[in-house]
Amino acid sequence: MTDQPNSAAITTDWTTVSTADGPMRVYVARPDRPADRAVIVLQEAFGVNDHIQDIASRYAAHGFLALAPDLFHRNGVGILAYEQHAEAMPLIGAIGPDEIVSDIEAVLTHLRAEEGVPASRTAINGFCFGGRAAFTAATAISGFGATVVFYGPGIAAGPHAVVDRAVNIDAPMLLHVGSADPTIPDEQVAAIEGALTAAGVEFESYVYEGAGHAFACDARPHMYVEDSARTAWQRTHAFLDKHLPATA
């Protein structure tokens, strides 16, 4: 995220929520005043690391209550380094639609019960594996305020593909992908856009010319594409402000 407002007044902490498969840690970033809108930030393949925590904090600086659940809670791995890609693949492969939906429902229950924020005032924003997770949750849980997918592989192909469930999506969706991302080839982008169109979903889909996978991850300089990242974040904030406008 390249547009970074002053984050000095935000507070961060960890909490724990109950899921069908046991307790799950959730990173929480709070703005400097009570928020009536929230964003659930879904991790890449490497856990709720410094980058994901930073994204949550930046959302809080924009006035959102941001929560980043630890989707690795079932295996206890926690955080992997970016160079541990080979170790990450079987971990995310083991997290299918049922597990994703269970975890997101647990966060929504927490938001409603403990923070007074309903699903209709909550967005999901996922990155990489978290992008697939965000799309998956949107196909199974109704009433979200919005969904934002950054370069989510495995939506249209693979063992956990859910593009055929797009008809169940009832929240507006924004998708970002790089034209040079080998994990989401053109035909998969077309399949996702076609399924959303056929389902009557309100969506925006952007392909960033010359950008590859993880182009918005400034924690990985060799993959980061500043111009594309800036544009993607500008579009994301405009999209969320449209569908979850601030009320104070």
From TrEMBL:
Stored Gene3D superfamilies: alpha/beta hydrolase
Family matches, as Pfam families: DLH
SUPFAM superfamilies from the UniProt entry: alpha/beta-Hydrolases
Domain of life, source organism: Bacteria
InterPro entries recorded: AB_hydrolase_fold (IPR029058), Dienelactn_hydro (IPR002925), Dienelactone_hydrolase-like (IPR051049)
A GO molecular function held by the record: hydrolase activity
Keywords: Hydrolase
Ranges where the Dienelactone hydrolase domain occurs: 24-243
Name recorded for this polypeptide: Dienelactone hydrolase family protein
